[in-house]
Design brief:
It is a single chain. 30% of the residues lie in helices and 28% in strands. By secondary structure, it is α/β, with parallel strands linked by helices. The relative contact order is 0.20. The mean pLDDT is 91.
C-alpha cells in the first residue's frame, strides 16, 4: 500500500515528489532572495488549510504579519480569513524564543500546535538560527533540536533557507542538509542572456523523486512548475550553456 503523501498544492511539484512529501518529514527549501521560498511556504500552508483540512502555522523571524498579508494578497490569497477561521496561524518571534517554546510543553507555541492540531509548519527562515551558534557542531545540535521538535509532533515542516544568488552548492556548516529528509533548491538561471527560475529536488530520503531540473514561474495563485531544461548544462551554477 502506498503511504499517504502530504500534497503541496503546487502544480507539478507533487508529481516531482511522486505524490507529495512524506508525512512528518522535515523539508529544507533553499534559494536566493526573490526566488519564491516564502510563496512556496504559503502555498503549502494554504493548500493544507483549504483542501486537506490541515491547520497550518507560519513562524516568521523577519516579516511582520502585515507584510505577509500584503505579499499573500498580491498572489490572490486572503490570510486574514484563514486566520479568523482558525485554519492558519502566524507568529512573529525570534529563533531563541521559538526554540525554547518548542521544548516547553506549556509554551504558547506548543499549546497552539496541540490545541489546534497543527499539521503543517513553515519556518521563515532557518538561516536566522546561525547567529545562535559559535561553531558548526553547536549549530548542528540546534538544527537537530528544531527538526526533532517538529517531528515529535508529527508535523510536516518546511524550513526556508537563504543563500546568495551566486551560490550553487552552498557550504552547510551546520549540516542542515543531513538533518532534513528532503531538499528542494530554487535557483535563478541565466539562459541565452535572460533570467529564468529553476527548481530541483536534490534529495528525498525514503522515497524516489523526479531528478530533473525544471522551470517554474510565480503568478497569482503561486508557483507553477514548467518543463525540463533540455540540452543545458551548468544550471545549478546559475549560468547555463548548451550541452555539447
Amino acid at each position: 500500500m502506498t503511504e499517504k503523501r502530504v500534497r503541496t498544492g503546487v502544480p507539478g511539484l507533487d508529481e516531482m515528489l511522486h505524490g507529495g512529501f512524506l508525512p512528518g518529514s522535515v523539508v529544507l527549501v533553499r534559494g536566493a532572495p526573490g526566488t519564491g521560498k516564502t510563496s512556496l511556504g504559503l502555498q503549502f500552508l494554504i493548500h493544507g488549510a483549504t483542501k486537506e483540512n490541515e491547520t497550518g502555522l507560519l513562524i516568521s523571524f523577519e516579516e511582520f504579519p502585515r507584510s505577509l498579508y500584503r505579499d499573500a494578497a498580491s498572489l490572490g490569497w486572503d490570510l486574514r480569513s484563514l486566520e479568523e477561521a482558525g485554519k492558519l496561524h502566524l507568529i512573529f518571534t525570534s529563533p531563541e524564543v521559538f526554540l525554547a517554546g518548542l521544548e516547553t510543553p506549556s509554551s504558547i507555541v506548543e499549546r497552539l500546535i496541540r490545541e489546534h492540531d497543527v499539521r503543517r509548519v513553515v519556518l521563515d527562515s532557518i538561516t536566522h538560527f546561525n547567529r545562535l551558534a559559535s561553531d558548526r557542531h553547536e549549530l548542528r545540535r540546534i538544527y537537530t533540536r528544531v527538526a526533532n521538535g517538529l517531528r515529535r509532533e508529527g508535523i510536516t515542516s518546511l524550513l526556508l533557507g537563504e543563500e546568495a544568488r551566486s551560490e550553487a552548492i552552498r557550504s552547510d556548516k551546520g549540516g542542515l542538509a543531513f538533518v532534513a529528509e528532503t531538499i528542494i533548491l530554487l535557483r535563478y538561471v541565466e539562459v541565452e542572456s535572460a533570467i529564468q527560475r529553476a527548481i530541483v529536488v536534490l534529495k528525498m530520503r525514503g522515497s524516489d523523486h523526479d531528478k530533473a531540473i525544471r522551470r517554474y514561474e510565480i503568478h497569482e495563485g503561486g508557483l507553477i512548475i514548467g518543463d525540463v531544461f533540455e540540452g543545458r548544462q551548468g544550471l545549478l551554477r546559475g549560468i547555463s550553456y548548451r550541452a555539447a
